[in-house]
Amino acid sequence: MAIFYKHFDKARIVFWALFICFLFIATNVKAQNALFTVDGIDVDVTANSALTARDTAFIEAQKKAFDVLAQRMLSENELRKFELPEIFVISALIKDYEVTKEKFSSVRYMGTYGFRFKDKAVRRYFSGRGVQYTDVSSRPVLILPYYQFGEHVVLWSPYNSWMQAWNRYNDLGGLVPVVVPLGDIQDVRDIGDEQSLTYDEMRLHSMLGRYDTGEAVIVVAVPDKNLSLVYKDSDPASGALTVYIYRTDRAHLEYVTQIIETARSGQTKADLLNKAVKRVYKTLQKDWKKKTVVSASQSNKLIANISFKTLSQWVKTREVLEIVHGINEISIKSISPKRAQIEIMFQGTEDRLRLALQQSNVTLSEPRFAMTTGLVNNMQGGSSLVYELYLNRYAPSETRFTIGGG
Questions:
Q1: pLDDT tier at 196 (50, 70, 90 boundaries)?
Q2: β strands within 47-140, DSSP E
Q3: Shortest CA distance to 173 belongs to which of 101, 94, 114?
Q4: 124 vs 4, which has greater pLDDT?
Q5: Backbone CA torsion sign across 275, 280, 285, 291
Q6: 290 phi, psi to nearest 5 deg
Q7: pLDDT over 70 for what percent of the chain?
Q8: 3-class secondary structure, 254
């Protein structure tokens, strides 16, 4: 027994030495959330000189970029009364920027900017003004744009004007980044032209993995009789287009909503399709925003257990949790070589937290009422609601909900 304890103590010493080392690494791993990155800001300014035009354009670009960020993050009610802050306030919220295109003349400056904003500073800015906003972005979704010709529905056909319209749309980032498929051999194998509502779930899952997306959104565009007679995208549009939106992230295909876009005077068919794409895209953003919007006053916390087989699993779990937005702070309450207990401070409801964690492939269990043991340092002899948390890749074969032990 003495030999056993000797080796046990050595193992524990090694564990804690490695833990301290890896803890330092994990707590310093951060990733820039794409939500706070705004690219493609075009400016075109004429002034007395090119230098003055460039300076004015830079101010204009900052304002336009922050307006884009606000459009992404603020609730619909807040956007109705939103006003841009002074430029010195916006500048203080910018982490860095780049200029991707520039063109000068003696009195004119044209440029394209990209900005990265300081995520914590932006949250503090909105929170300090008591506005409702969201900082939780969705995993990218794969859009599958089907177009109906009479009784036939096409997806991969070169005559699918609806697919072409999605490929023309430049700004597909935001809260819900949208990915348009390539239509290569693997795509055609996984889902066919006639499978908009009868796809094979395993094949679709394979396709989602290739594009690193969380789910597919099927959008079926149906032209009315008048629009169906307009063959070329450059021809004047007439009639209307109805788009049916379906989600696929549950056990079965689920109808969500529909939009109707009616042709206006002077529009081409391409113009009509482009506008319908923009409306579908905005619908996806608004729907996600409703699920994740929160106010500064909605602060909560919970206790979660994390089981791990190796130190690297613990480190990887910490790394992932550090970049989950919607979490304000994580503190370690206790730890052993196989198990840790953490306190998560977050904004909004538990459902919102779960949704945020899901975007990083993390599962948070439903709470269980459990008696505490010595593992819990701040709850002596009491009881509490406790959760289990794990990266999906480390999902236990049988989740345990009792506290204690390593």
A1: confident
A2: 94-104, 108-117
A3: 114
A4: 124
A5: positive
A6: -60, -35
A7: 85
A8: strand
**CA 211/CA 180 separation, integer angstroms:** 9
Cα 383 to Cα 94: distance, rounded to the nearest angstrom: 45
User: How does the average pLDDT of the chain come out, rounded?
Assistant: 86
Residue 122 CA to residue 297 CA, distance in Å, equals: 16
Q: Is the dihedral of CA 205, 208, 213, 215 positive or negative?
A: negative
Task: List the domains of the chain with CATH numbers.
Answer: 34-128 (3.10.28), 141-292 (3.40.50), 298-394 (no CATH)
Dist. CA 109–CA 44, nearest whole Å? 6
For the chain, helix (H) and strand (E) counts, in that order, are 12, 15
pLDDT by residue (tens digit) across 253-297? 899 999 999 999 999 999 999 999 999 999 999 999 988 998 767
Query: Which candidate, 257, 276, 188, places its Cα nearest to that of 217?
Result: 257
Query: Which of 122, 152, 148 is CA-nearest to residue 135?
Result: 122
User: CB neighbours of 272 closer than 8 A, spacing ≥ 6?
Assistant: 227, 237, 241, 261, 263
Six token digits for residue 229: 């007679």
Q: Which of 146-160, 243-257, 306-320, 380-394 has the lowest mean pLDDT?
A: 380-394
Predicted confidence at residue 141, as pLDDT, reads 95
Helix extents (H) in 293-402:
311-322, 350-358
3-state secondary structure of 353: helix
Identify the CA nearest to 344 among candidates 357, 328, 363, 323: 328
